[in-house]
Amino acid sequence: MTLEIREGDRRSAFDAALNAYGPDSLYVPPLWSDFDRMFDPAKNPFITEGHGRYALLSAHRDGKPVGRIAASIHDASNRKHGTRHGAFGFFDCIDDAEVADALLRAAEQWLAARGMSRITGNFNLTAMQQIGVMTDGFDHAPFTDMMWSPPHIAQQLERAGYAATFPMTSFEIALDGGKPEQLLGDKQRAVLKDPDFVWQPIKRSAFKARLEDARLILNDGFADNPMFVPPTAAEYLFQAGDMMWIIDKRISTVVYYRGRPAGAIIAIPDLNPLVKTIGGRVGLSAPFKFMQHRMMNTRAVLIYQSVCRELHNRGLNGAMLYRTALALQQAGYRTLGGTWIADINGPSLRQAEKVGAQPLHRLHLFSKRLAGA
Known about the structure:
Blueprint: E1 3-7, H1 10-21, H2 32-38, H3 45-48, E2 52-61, E3 64-74, H4 75-81, E4 85-93, H5 97-112, E5 118-121, E6 133-136, H6 151-159, E7 163-174, H7 186-193, E8 197-201, H8 207-221, H9 233-240, E9 253-257, E10 260-269, H10 272-277, H11 286-296, E11 299-307, H12 316-330, E12 335-342, H13 346-354, E13 358-369
Parallel strand pairs: 4-5, 11-12
Antiparallel strand pairs: 1-2, 2-3, 3-4, 5-13, 6-13, 7-12, 7-13, 8-9, 9-10, 10-11
Helix pairs in contact: 7-12, 8-9
């Protein structure tokens, strides 16, 4: 059986993971339209604004796509951190050493040819998108914006000489019977009573303005985080602009302090059950299925929360999560998923513990020094 590596075949790369894992796995594809535009160099600001470069590679056995990987260089990140690091992302394949090795080797060679000294992943192009490789919790269905891969992906990486690093955990919070008041201390209560804090929902009528303020809060609050590179307005809108059609104004908030953007908490309904049902492709029945899902859905996911640095340790983070948990309960949501928190992020882990979050998945980055570096 012949094995071929192709570059730039977006349709085959999209199909590869579906072929590799099958319909009975917990894998949820991205929407095809999102995947297609993400890897369209004429549309993605990662390319058009000159922040980085990538190659999308797919493995074909006797013509059938059975694996994929993206190799990328975030030039803006390397300039900021003084590194020569490349990344792999979207690494999905059948449980076959020949296929895994061929994909990893192709990504490594592409990066080495461009002067990179190390490869790390998964980074699905940037640290602001899905990251990590699952290492535990394989039986738990992912929420929107969470990674999922079968055990053999981490195993193939270890066999190929990659080392697990930067451990992370995703969480699930049962809202039924939850006690969000456990998040409240003196600081949080003071914030909730302070008229200088103004709470604004993210609704369609002011969507772009609120989203831009949320970006500014993200960039300021995350400025000191490892690997973070602040997204530009175009990058942020490219990634988050479609939220306008699914946003639930009851559960996402931008907070202003004395008229300036201060904190943001972005939560959305979980679309994964719907996306899995339609296989990532929007057909004629998709609008009906979307409305049906919206009426029956009781799952939401917390994409991120951030507070500007001048207000760190003032209690705003806990106050935002408290208000969001109450709003979720009142809106009929029963479960909240939380995207990854790194082991080194003690304050966020303590906050997750206070709200009764239970570990859902364990993830790591996998890294390897490139030959000749």
